[in-house]
Structures are given as structure tokens and as C-alpha cells.
């Protein structure tokens, strides 16, 4: 049983992850910033922890995550608020979380990132290009730390039900994946501590999630 602190706990992946973890017998705790989300999160089996990455400093965030075994950073501005909000949440928010994890004595941190080639070959906005750049800087920041980190790069996220089957490796062709399957993969990695200090690309596929994670070479 692991105590897992989810930054971005009210997001679409964060909610699914909390539910997955609770169902597996873990103790999830979900950071959220809108008080009206409390009951929804509690119903998923997670402990709601009120706080905003826009307002907390490292000490305050460390106090909230204290006692956790693992931190999962799945927060994201989702394109709302323009480049400034992306910089604040996806960029500085990850840096804040890393600093807080150090202060709280938490070694393991999982980051939900993005394929660098997401939507390549299509017409994308300057906001999206900034999003890709910020995500890459966040990865670079995390990799440079001494934490026990894992970076997950899911393909285009879908709200369709998960299949329980994925393609996961250090590099895979770009594609789509259900948020359900992303959450299930994160939960499986949490249960496989030997998967450490590697970047994993993730799309829908033919391999059961547990088997796909066990096959990963970054051990």
C-alpha cells in the first residue's frame, strides 16, 4: 500500500488515477483548488487537499504532501489562460512540486508530460507551441534532480473507456490513448518501483498494461 499525493487531482487524469489507486488499496490524496470539487473527489476514494499551485510556496506544498510515498504531477492549464497560465502551472508548478518533494523527504515523483511530436504536421497555435516547450523544460528540470523520477508521455488523450491494453516503451510511434489507460499505467508504475529514472512513451496498443510495464527496460 502506497500513499500517493496527486498534484492536479481534480483533472481528468488525476481523478481517474485516484479512483484506480483507491480500488487497488492505496491511499491517494488529491490537491485541488476549487472548494466545490471536495465532494466529487471524496466520492472517488481520495482525500481532498485544498491548495493552488498559483498561491502555495514550496514549504506550504511540502506540508500538504508530507507523509506521502509518491508524488504524481498531472496538473496542467489545459490551454486556458494563455501562455502565462501554462508557464505558471505546467512549468513553474512542476518546479514547485520538485522543491516541495525535496522538503518533504519524498523521493519518487511521476510526471505526466506530452509527446514532443504531438500534432506535428498540422496547423497549431502559438499557445500550443508554448505548451510543448514548457513541458520539455519541465522534463529537463526533473531529469536534472536526484529524485527517483519517471516521465510518462501519453499520446493524444481520449475520454473513451480504457481497453486495458497499451503500447509503452522508451520510444513508440505517436498515437492516441484513453485517459483511463493512462491512469491505469500510472497506478501500475507506482506498484513497480523498479521502473525508475526513465521516460516512457505511451499509446493504445495490444499488450495488457501490467505486462507492458513489466517489459520496460528502465529497471
Keywords:
single chain; 219 residues; alpha/beta; Rossmann fold; two-stranded parallel ribbon; 7 helices; 39% helix
Description:
Helices cover 39% and strands 23% of the residues. The strands form two sheets. A nine-stranded mixed beta sheet has the order 3-2-1-4-5-6-10-8-11, with helices on both faces. It has helices at residues 12-23, 38-43, 58-65, 82-104, 126-143, 179-190, 209-215, and strands at residues 3-7, 27-32, 47-50, 70-73, 108-112, 148-154, 156-158, 165-169, 176-178, 198-204, 207-208. The protein has seven helices and eleven strands. It has a single domain, classed as Rossmann fold (3-Layer(aba) Sandwich), CATH 3.40.50. With 219 residues, it is an alpha/beta fold.
How is the largest sheet built, in terms of strand order? Answer: 3-2-1-4-5-6-10-8-11
- Which segments are poorly predicted (pLDDT under 50) over 5 or more consecutive residues? none
- Can you give the mean pLDDT? 93
CATH architecture: 3-Layer(aba) Sandwich
- Distance from N terminus to C terminus (CA atoms, Å) equals 21 Å
Per the CATH scheme, the topology name is Rossmann fold
Structural class: alpha/beta
CATH superfamily: NAD(P)-binding Rossmann-like Domain
In terms of DSSP E residues, the strand content is 15-25%
Shape: globular
State the domain count: 1
- What is the count of helical runs? 7
The beta-strand count equals: 11
Largest sheet: 9 strands, mixed
**Using only CA atoms, what is the Rg?**
16 Å
Helix content: 25-40%
- H/E topology pattern: EHEHEHEHEHEEEEHEEH
Amino acid at each position: 500500500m502506497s500513499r500517493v499525493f496527486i498534484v492536479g487531482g481534480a483533472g481528468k487524469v488525476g481523478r481517474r488515477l485516484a479512483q484506480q489507486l483507491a480500488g487497488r488499496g492505496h491511499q491517494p490524496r488529491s490537491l485541488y483548488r476549487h472548494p466545490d470539487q471536495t465532494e466529487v473527489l471524496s466520492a472517488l476514494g481520495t482525500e481532498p487537499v485544498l491548495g493552488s499551485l498559483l498561491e502555495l510556496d514550496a514549504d506550504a506544498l511540502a506540508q500538504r504532501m508530507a507523509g506521502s510515498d509518491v508524488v504524481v504531477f498531472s496538473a496542467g492549464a489545459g490551454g486556458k489562460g494563455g501562455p502565462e497560465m501554462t508557464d505558471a502551472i505546467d512549468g513553474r508548478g512542476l518546479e514547485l512540486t520538485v522543491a516541495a518533494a525535496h522538503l518533504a523527504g519524498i523521493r519518487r515523483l511521476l510526471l505526466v508530460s506530452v509527446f514532443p511530436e504531438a500534432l506535428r504536421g498540422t496547423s497549431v497555435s502559438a499557445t500550443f507551441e508554448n505548451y510543448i516547450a514548457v513541458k520539455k523544460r519541465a522534463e529537463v528540470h526533473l531529469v536534472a534532480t536526484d529524485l527517483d523520477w519517471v516521465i510518462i508521455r501519453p499520446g493524444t488523450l481520449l475520454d473513451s473507456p480504457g481497453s486495458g491494453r497499451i503500447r509503452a516503451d522508451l520510444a513508440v510511434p505517436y498515437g492516441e490513448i484513453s485517459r483511463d489507460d493512462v491512469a491505469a499505467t500510472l497506478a501500475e508504475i507506482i506498484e513497480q518501483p523498479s521502473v525508475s529514472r526513465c521516460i516512457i512513451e505511451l499509446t493504445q496498443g495490444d499488450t495488457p498494461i501490467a505486462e507492458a510495464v513489466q517489459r520496460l527496460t528502465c529497471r
